[in-house]
Design brief:
Number of helices: 4
Shape: globular
Order of helices and strands: HEEEHEEEEHH
Distance between the termini: 34 Å
Largest sheet: 5 strands, antiparallel
Protein name: HIT domain-containing protein
CATH superfamily: HIT-like
InterPro entries: HIT-like (IPR011146), HIT-like_sf (IPR036265)
Structural class: alpha+beta
């Protein structure tokens, strides 16, 4: 079974639990990257491409993506929020909602610049490699606080 389907079926529980779930989508913190607020948004149904989504899934992805991005933009230290889809580690279609913090840019030795500008794709790749961890090490206070802050946006 794919990783995302395992999360949807609650066979795997991401750190901090599910942030949001409805009949079409699920939002949770990335399970193995130790960056506060790094979110993954997926349809519940296993599809492999954006073109496979139905209209309700597209609508819910758009609405929940906006909530997730808005929540991250309100967090201290977040300068920018990237949204991307790659699908290299799992074939289940999903969106990365990735916060960029100022501290990510502090080490100028990182190869994250192109033409003296931050290259979001390079930064994303660097962070996914440098901050990769195992799920049981994700329960740091800053990650859990970010999850709770984002979850609170979804409460009535």
């Amino acid at each position: 079974m794919c990783l995302t389907c395992s999360i949807v079926k609650a066979d795997i529980l991401p750190v901090g639990g599910i942030i949001y779930k409805d009949d079409y989508v699920v939002l949770h913190h990335c399970i193995d990257i130790n960056i506060p607020g790094y979110l993954i948004l997926s349809p519940l149904r296993h599809v492999e491409s954006y073109s496979d989504l139905n209209q309700m899934e597209i609508q819910h992805i758009g609405i929940i993506m906006k909530f997730g991005v808005t929540a991250l933009e309100k967090m201290d230290g977040v300068e920018k929020v990237y949204v991307a889809n790659f699908g290299e580690e799992t074939t289940h279609f999903h969106m990365h909602i990735f916060p960029r913090y100022k501290w990510m840019l502090n080490d100028l030795s990182k190869n994250i610049y192109t033409d003296n500008k931050v290259d979001g794709a390079k930064l994303f790749c660097f962070c996914r490699k440098h901050y990769k961890t195992v799920p049981n090490r994700m329960k740091q206070n800053n990650v859990l606080a970010a999850i709770e802050s984002i979850r609170n946006l979804f409460l009535p």
